[in-house]
Amino acid sequence: MDKSQYLDMFIDESKEHLQAINDNLLLLEKNPSEENIINEIFRSAHTLKGMSATMGFSDLANLTHQMENVLDGIRNEIIMASSELIDMVFESVDYLEAMIQDIADGGNGQKNVTEIVKKLEMLEKGSFEETSTTIEIINQMEITDYDDFEQTVLSQSREQGFNAYYVSISLREDCILKAARVYMVFEVLEQIGEVIKSVPSVEELEEESFDFDFSVTLITKEAESDVKGKVLKVSEIESVSIQELTMEKGKRSSKESNQPQKSVTTEEDVNPSLPVEEKGDTTTSSQIKNGTSSKTIRVNIERLDSLMNLFEELVIDRGRLEQISSELKDNDLTETVEHMSRISSDLQSIILTMRMVPVDHVFNRFPRMVRGLAKELNKMVDLEIVGASTELDRTVIDEIGDPLVHLLRNSIDHGIESCDIRKREGKSEIGKITLKAYHSGNHVFIEVSDDGAGINRQKVMDKAINNGIIHRETAATLTDQEVDELLFSSGFSTAEEISDISGRGVGLDVVKNKIESLGGSVSVFSNPGEGTTFSIQLPLTLSIISAMLVEVQDEIYALPLSSIIETAIIKEEDILSAHNQKVIDFRGSVVPVIDLTEFFQVPVSKEQSEYYSVVVVRKSDKMAALVVNSFIGQQEIVLKSLGNYLTSTFAISGATILGNGEVALIIDCNAFIK
Amino acid sequence: MSKISVEKDLKAIVFQLRNEEYGVEVDQVRSIERLQHITRVPRSPEFVKGVINLRGVVTPIIDLRSRFGMEAQEYTDTSRVIIVSIEDMNVGLVVDGANDVIDVPIEAIEAPPEVVGGIEADYIRGIAKLDKRLLIILNLDKVLRTDEIKEMENLEANT
Questions:
Q1: Which residues on B lie below 8 Å from A652 (Cβ)?
Q2: For chain B, which residues make up each domain, given as ranges?
Q3: pLDDT tens for residues A77-100?
Q4: Check whether domain B10-158 has CATH 3.30.2310.20, yes or no
Q5: Of A62, A87, A206, A620, whose CA is between 20 and 30 Å from A528?
Q6: What's the rounded Cα separation, in Å, for the pair A60 and A175?
């Protein structure tokens, strides 16, 4: 069987299951006796085991299997879910994550798991007797592992006088057409009853992805021996063993087995006079179930990207059509084009939202990380996550993970004080870190705040002076805000002792660079004694932006709207000169003037009138005024790269294609301001 | 590099530059386009003419005459842009004309002549003699080397 086509799906789903295990383990730690949580974890682990065995990743399957045994112990209340035990399970989850990452990176997912497997075994054995063989554990577990639906079918059929059997069938080892034999067995079984579950699943059986044993759960009116005899008539069957399933066994894994469920059709045939109320009940309960899992399909990100590319083409053509229709001034044409423009802007927002992913994708691994770090540092930290459903473009999501990890580490390490100090300060022993995401305008904000000591400005200044970042003289003139911003300068670290958590001196400036490369910005606010907040501002999307088109002589350039403060017409005499640099007085501040014609060495074709058109742009709180010849207007433009050949063009961040099919360059306003 | 170690014939696109004939391997050529509006890219090397919209992809254009230090010439109706692709880099080359594809037998290709102090010879992979034609086979990797652009930028900045 060619498994490669399932590999992506396997990786995705495994990651989801591991995440689910992670989340639930954290919950379990808070409520060690909550049976539902254990069941959830168990289910995820079990699926993971099945999947990895099918895909042939034996190390992965081994470790999951051992983990499952421990979980089984917890579930059956043989082992206590102590903190150490949960640490151990977390550790195995880490191993699993590493292996899956390896598989995703094209490796074979092999890793030495003997040590961790041994540890888990010790945990397991430490408290209860090891069950004799692995196969038995699996069987036992599988007997009990029916979902609610199957439970219901089982219990209902029993009420109606059917017998439920657990049939294990072994094929002969020299059997060649395993799938065919399986098919024959199923045919025999379906003649005498109903197969409600098979392990492995029917699909897996059809693909022959099992060794020689499989098992099915059968409801039938036939006696045990008859069933056995009929199955054995199929050739190449080594052995058949049948166990009768009793009610108690079926019930064990779930308390909700009395929850009515939609029954299989055959069953309705058997008992057409099913009470109406029960049916009504059924639909509601299944609706509630559906409510929790939203209807989604998995789409490869590449397909979304190509959809986006196609749409970009459409946006370009739209621009062209708009231009043509405004030239032709034909009513029908104008109307159609306007309608098309409206539809395509709706389409644009839909496609953009399709690429949006909740920040939860990044956030969900943080509780785990915070817990680990806090333990390591002997601090007590509570992480609160707000707005995890806030959505961001996929490309941005992929990039913000590391900066956020940095900020969180920073908060735990430097922000939150140790328990003793907190007690002395009259604060609660448990430090609090809030991770908050929210939309505002065309931006998404992510804040990491702690209720720790705040920034010690004196220390920051001393450090900055020692590291040669600022001069002693200038230090005195800095505002609090400016001192705080020093944290982002390169080569800065305030932790007195270098810990391996943060404080390697590469921290915050890296964060700042990363965020700025995404077109965002990061700032910090702090109140001594009350805590510190790092705020990250990110653009919603990176591929279509609003821009202002301007004409410089005969060339057209685009300026991102996000960096424009305003446009103005100024008189020639208002342009002053300061130290050989032209400046203007703009709303009380002196702003340098840059003539784009000169700057971009544009061939001069137009005479300069006594009025100058300027665009005032900004980078954080600094401004510059760019002189252009005329403003064309605002437009949505599609960002295109200049390709790999022109990599270092100064002050140009990319290109876009205009309505007339020509290329216009996008000006990187940050380049003008140092 | 005195011998070219390719077994088969070399299929080459033939183009003209200043009355000389050049060839590039057909595998490296994506398409041949007529000249269209080129958007100038400010502060780029002299031979970079700018970028064009090639069916939705912004593609940089370099002028081969100016790349090889030949005198400039107004573009004419026969001027063509050869779009070449090397290591996921798409670049258009402006040439005086391009109208032929020929098979060059490997044995007809000779090593480029040694030129005193010539960087230019680096760009040439070999010279093919075909009847009375001389075909200069280009080494596109060298022609499109970006580190050299950076060097030139530095030179410009220093002078």
A1: 41-42
A2: 10-158
A3: 777 777 777 787 888 888 888 888
A4: no
A5: A620
A6: 28
